[in-house]
Amino acid sequence: MNTIEIPEKNIVIEIPSSWDECSSDQVYFLLEKAFKVISGKMSIGMFRIVAFQHFTGLKFGTSYRIKQRLGLNQKVNSEIARLSKIYCDWIFEEDDDQYQLTFDSVINYFPEIKRCYGPADLLADLTFGEFQQALVLMNEYTESQESESPTDQPLYGFIKLLYRPKVKGQRVALTGYRDKATFKSVPDWKLKVTLMWFTNCIQAIKEEDLHLSGVEVNFSPLFPAEEKPRSKRKGLNLGWNGILLDVAESGVFGKAAEVNETPLYEILFYLLKKQDDHKQ
């Protein structure tokens, strides 16, 4: 946390310096505004000022608005812009003259959308089959956006797959589920944040130390870096079809259909143990 102190008014303001330090409400606010920057509807400078206002509770009164119309606020505006850049510059990072949103959380900040419920943080309750299908739809959406005829249909399919109603406190199983929900009225930025969150979880699984059920584990040995891609297919192609066949052939979790119903992390733990055993 960063701290701003105004001793003469006995005011102390804490401003987050990372996503992990933000409250849920702050995350919602920042992400909604951030997608206005991404879509070209708001400048990065104005975004920083709006974020700074949100963090500090800064409000512009009648006197400020009158002076603004008369062009008398240059000094005040310059100071606000300077402070907002100091304290809110971490939300975007500049890369080759473009600004990239730094949101990297694996927390599902939207566990419910239109009375349908999504996966737990870090995809902890996803089955292998759900994960694999979601990955396919995510890649279809990514490819579509880079084509001459972009469509949001894969994105809606992605959300419908992951977000389902609950029965007796549990999300209904994907097998045999016929979705009736439509998510076209959900704000575009919220759907895209959910997609971004999913990719964050994938990156964490591939690269980071994770704490699962009190155990620290790192699955990165399962995903060795390749110098040259095996396929020209864009998106996150992690070879999950190969994993499905490999595990199904082992018979540990049953045939392919049973493997798809197995929790994702059970599969990953099995593969990691198998690899460790092989090294020994």
TrEMBL record:
Domain of life, source organism: Bacteria
Protein name, as recorded: Uncharacterized protein
The species this protein was found in: Sphingobacterium zeae
Source organism phylogeny: Bacteria, Pseudomonadati, Bacteroidota, Sphingobacteriia, Sphingobacteriales
